[in-house]
Amino acid sequence: MTFKRVKNLKVGRAFTHHTSPMATPFLFWATGVIGIVAGLGRLVSARQLLLLGVVGSGPIISATHLFTLAGFTMVMMGALYQLTPVLFDCDPLPFWRVFVQWALYSAGVGLFVISLSGHWFIGTLTGAAGLVAGLILYVINFWERVRRRSTWNLTAWFFISAVFYLSLTIIVGGLVAIHYTTGLLPFPNELAIHLTIALGGWFGLLMVGASFRLWNMFGRLHHEPRYWALTAILIHLAIWVMVAGDLSQLSWLSRVGWGLQLAAFIFYSIDVAQGGLFDRRTMKDPALRALFAAMFFLLLWEVLGSAGLFGQVRGVWIEALLAYGLGWVGMTFMGFAQKIVPFIIWLHRYAYVRGKGKMPRLDDILIPAWAYGPIVGATAGLVGLLLGLWAHWDWLLTAGIILEMAGWLSLLAVGVRVVRGPHRRPQ
Hints:
Helix content: over 70%
Shape: globular
Oligomer: single chain
Number of helices: 15
Structural class: mainly alpha
Number of strands: 0
Radius of gyration: 21 Å
Largest sheet: none
């Protein structure tokens, strides 16, 4: 494949006849939202440790893994199960295989985070083994579907790269766990390397690739990203340069890597803006307004991370990571999920119905105004959480976490209401 052909790849059409069973994405998304809410609940009880900056304690580590493993990774697996057959023009995975993977992974994560909080070594080890087995099974499921693909598009480059970094995250995470439990196999800056691969590779590439496709799908401009190849190359370079900087303990190399991801952020932001972020017709949709908040928190991540790396400002990395996770990843999912869910329901329940009365539109399945509750609650909550953490105001931190929880719970309530129906307008 020549570079010219790669550069001219499109985001790809949707082969909707290959959509997964409706229960597949909803199972993972509902579990993921519950995981995020559980992480926020754990954060409430551990907020004093958070204010003191004691991030290595069991409660904080368990809350972190509730966000990353039970929350964001869960919703991303559900998204890939849904999007892979649709975009790669291949048959979806049978639901029983999806359910087995979900059950194994969920049981492992649950035991892992509970055991971390209670300092139960055997439980932690068993849970870690279960969740790693669940992740490996997911990677196997993904590669099996990709092997059967009959089409190729730029979204595939991002998805395949993201799953590759997920595999690396599993390996590095295993090495970190072995070191912390046995003292064996140490290497420099192991946690920083683990975070770089997970945040930049697994989360970052998947979010960028999915958002390119979804902006093209739901934005009125139907924009094809111009700088996708440059964005992808810069992200890959940034990850490996920062990993090299951490391993060699050369701070200047880590800063070069950070500069590369800053450049990737700029080109990604240009494509998002051209995709409809500032288009009045597109942004009339309340669900898509969550993307304003998502891009704001991504910008905040860049500012705080730069201050911590170049300005040697201590204590900003916790805020930066929360802005990246709950802000960019969380709000992007929150916005697009409220567009994808009614689309999935319409495809499964109404797309092939003929002669049975007036069929509902997408706006009849999920009333646009319902999007305001989750978006406002989660945005205001995260702002309060970050300000309370920065100013060391316990009352504001607590209020922010509770409001953030309310936003995610309202998203779950909207999802349940949408799935149950009814969807048809009165005749």
